[in-house]
Amino acid sequence: MEIATSQPSLVKASLSRTSLIAEIRAFYTIIWREWLHFVRYPTWVIAFIIWPILFPAVYIFSSFALAGPGGAGIPRFLQVAGTENFLGYIVVGTTVWMWANTLLWNVGFALRGEQMRGTLESNWMTPTSRFLFLVGTGPVHAATMLMFFIFTVIEFRIFFNLTFEANLLSLLIVFLAAIPALYGLGFTFASLVITAREANTFVFLVRGIVMIFCGITYPISVMPAWMQTVAQWLPPTLIIRAARAAALNRAPLSVVAPDVLLLLAHGAFWLTIGYLTFSQIERRARLKGALGQY
Amino acid sequence: MSAYAIEAEDLVKKFPRRVPPENQPSSKNPFTRLFKHPPLTEFTAVDHVSFQIQRGEIFGLLGPNGAGKSTTIRMLCTLLEPTSGFARVNGYDVVKEANLVRQSLGIVLAGERSIYWKLTGRENLEYFAALYHIPPEIARQRVNELLEYMELTNRANELVEKYSTGMRQRIVLSRALLARPPIILLDEPTLGLDPQAARRIREMILDLKNQGHTILLTTHYMEEADQLSDRIGIIDQGKIIALDTPAALKRRIHQQDVVRLEVAGWKPEMAAKIQAMEGVNQLITRSLDSDSVWELHLHTENSRAILPRLIEQVNYNGTHLVNMNIVSPSLEDVFIQLTGKALRD
């Protein structure tokens, strides 16, 4: 093999042209890639059919037992929870918790997935903004969670004859207001993934704590006072409370507005914290060489 | 436009590293020993490296595993931030103008897992074309061109997980070329490939040079560096210890003869005796396919003078000479002369 001696004309500029349009296109492509990955691992179908009914079933059968013969305990439940529909109360709580949980950890897990696959560095060597990679997996998860909700409603209607008295507009507003707070927390968690490279232990710990504090199957008023104080500061508590009001009691916007405003405030706070933390940690990872390590 | 495609000046990269247990002060308390966090020290992966790469040049960084080649490339492509020193790519500072650097570069990092195995070859390229901010109409054309150039058009719509290692590497190379970047960084591009696939990649690298790209290539294959590079920086323990054209590097040891011997029944203790012979400057030994046959690489100023004594030494006590020739110095011989060890050590 001989090295060419003639001087070719040099390549001087690349075809890469960064602009807002190019970033939007990149964002769309990240969503498209995530969707292709989702549909090409078909085990999700099983999870979507079984999990919506499997997870709440534990609590539902416990509640049947606790309600006593002929539902003797239901008046007491009405007293503390504000509704007799304990089945709907549990289903909304567990479903919203699963959604919030997915959104909360989705960013970090997506990042960890890229790190494990070995594709994180090849993505980050491109001129696309790092934050697009963080939020790019969100829309696919939102779509899949919507399917999850639909499966939940259908399955509970069939197996438990459950009906919802929902104000869909209020419910939609609650969910939209929850997204910035959950993403902000997700960015903070993603920073932890880059630093620790093994985040499962932390996830299970926090998941368990949130599960207890946020009242997914019981009103937080049954907890000790100090736990109630902590619970009030956790965004999932606000989401579950507002979603229950909208899904079970047809609560109008004016009723869920205080929780929605609090969620938006949480959103502004956690997005700022998440952004700053992630920027710092990402720079630290470039200094320590932790990006490609797993 | 900057005169150089890549400039590195006094580039240093240090990583924190745990002190190995054998170097830690031992504690008598078993609980302290069990729970004590090992102390941190600093490991210098790249140690005051400086070089300039001309536009249109293939520049090879040659060195053994762990020499600092990949760390240097990772600093140039903005995945790592230097501890000190500076580097410019296409005239842009790798720290302060990272995004402009990324726009100027096509990068192949070592390993085949940098693409999505659950996407097709075409989907991978379309995805990365969007990430490189290439307008869609140009991207479509570019993807088709590259698939054809890489002879992958017929398999473009199959999932990458069904590709051979060589095909995956061609997709990785295509990804690096998507934006038709002026500068291409190739980190061990033929690592793990079969000889035919490796030859194909090497041909493509030469073709890319002819198309006017500047290429920085890291490799620990001396033949590859020799064949492809206009200039070579030999790197060892984070330092560039020699930098010149392959021919000039080899001329450095032209006054020396390189004797290559194959010896059956070799005993490691014989190395010291040969090394001690008058006229022997360097001796490197390595086991060949079977443990009983070893290869000896010996540098001497006058092979004729030492050959009789050398043959006598190796044909002794059960060992015997299988093959012997006097060879032209290779880049590995340059490396041996500079470091006293073989590239593969």
Write a brief caption for the model.
Chain A: InterPro entries: ABC2_TM (IPR013525), ABC2_TM_bact-type (IPR047817), ABC_2_transport (IPR000412), Nod_factor_ABC_transporter (IPR051784). Chain A: Residues 43-281 form the ABC transmembrane type-2 domain. The complex is a heterodimer of chains A (294) and B (345). Chain A is mainly alpha-helical and 294 residues long.
Topology:
The complex is a heterodimer of chains A (294) and B (345).
Chain A: H1 20-40, H2 44-67, H3 74-81, H4 86-117, H5 120-124, H6 130-135, H7 138-160, H8 168-196, H9 200-213, H10 225-232, H11 235-248, H12 253-288
Helix pairs in contact in A: 2-4, 2-7, 4-7, 4-8, 4-11, 8-11, 8-12, 11-12
Chain B: E1 4-18, H1 30-35, E2 40-54, E3 58-62, H2 69-76, E4 84-89, E5 92-93, H3 98-104, E6 105-108, H4 121-131, H5 136-149, H6 165-177, E7 183-187, H7 195-210, E8 214-219, H8 222-228, E9 231-236, E10 239-244, H9 246-251, E11 257-264, H10 270-275, E12 280-287, E13 293-300, H11 303-314, E14 320-327, H12 331-339
Parallel strand pairs in B: 3-8, 3-9, 6-7, 7-8
Antiparallel strand pairs in B: 1-2, 1-4, 4-5, 9-10, 11-13, 11-14, 12-13
Helix pairs in contact in B: 4-5, 4-6
Keywords (chain B): ATP-binding, Nucleotide-binding, Transport
GO molecular function (chain B): ATP binding; ATP hydrolysis activity
Protein name (chain B): DUF4162 domain-containing protein
Description:
The complex is a heterodimer of chains A (294) and B (345). Chain A has 294 residues and is mainly α. Chain A has one domain (17-288). Chain A contains twelve helices and no strands. Chain A has helices spanning 20-40, 44-67, 74-81, 86-117, 120-124, 130-135, 138-160, 168-196, 200-213, 225-232, 235-248, 253-288. Chain A starts with 19 loop residues before the first helix and ends in a 6-residue tail after the last helix. Chain B folds into two domains: 4-249, Rossmann fold (3-Layer(aba) Sandwich), CATH 3.40.50.300; 255-328, ACT domain (Alpha-Beta Plaits, 2-Layer Sandwich), CATH 3.30.70. Chain B has twelve helices and 14 strands. In chain B, a hairpin with a 5-residue loop joins β12 (280-287) and β13. In chain B, α4 crosses α5 and α4 (121-131) runs parallel beside α6 (165-177). With 345 residues, chain B is α/β, with parallel strands linked by helices. In chain B, the strands form three sheets. In chain B, strands 6-7-8-3-9-10 form a six-stranded mixed beta sheet, with helices on both faces. Chain B has a four-stranded antiparallel beta sheet with strand order 2-1-4-5. At the A-B interface, α1, α5 and α12 of A face α3, β6, α4, α5 and α7 of B.
